[in-house]
Amino acid sequence: MTQLPIEFQHWLTKRNSNEPVTLNGYxxxxxxxxxxQVVRSDIFVSVDEYISNYSDSLNHLAGKYYPISVYDLLSxxxxxxxxxxxxxxxTISQFGTFDNDHGVLRSFPNKTWTEMMRxxxxxxxxxxxxxxxxxxxxxxxxxxxFKNSIPTETPPW
Length: 157
Known about the structure:
Layout: H1 6-14, E1 21-22, E2 29-32, E3 40-46, H2 47-53, E4 65-72, E5 74-76, E6 87-89, E7 94-99, E8 104-108, H3 113-117, H4 120-124, E9 136-137
Antiparallel strand pairs: 1-2, 2-5, 3-4, 4-6, 6-7, 7-8, 8-9
């Protein structure tokens, strides 16, 4: 787990992993994975979603998906699919949220875990209410840090 921020690792190891975090937002409870169960996996950012909803001129990439490695941090959201709702993106060293239904990745630039804990409900709710917390759309086709992320025609689902 050396790729995860140290302060997050400390927080995760100090708490009872079976106890959910109570939130005051759209999502009421969230359970975090124990540190030894936080594993790296790929998400697939949909170029089409950015074309249709965010005015990106990417017609030459229409129908493609960008694989991005993340650490998925939540195990349960009590009524919602937790996959991607809170992730660590090691390529850009930022926390973020991935909307699995639409293929959109948002990051929380320059936010430490300590800062995020002050308003954790807003960060977890960002998929549903992105205007409530500062965030940026991750656009791998514009960011040199993702130069090894080659778009694919079909994600593996």
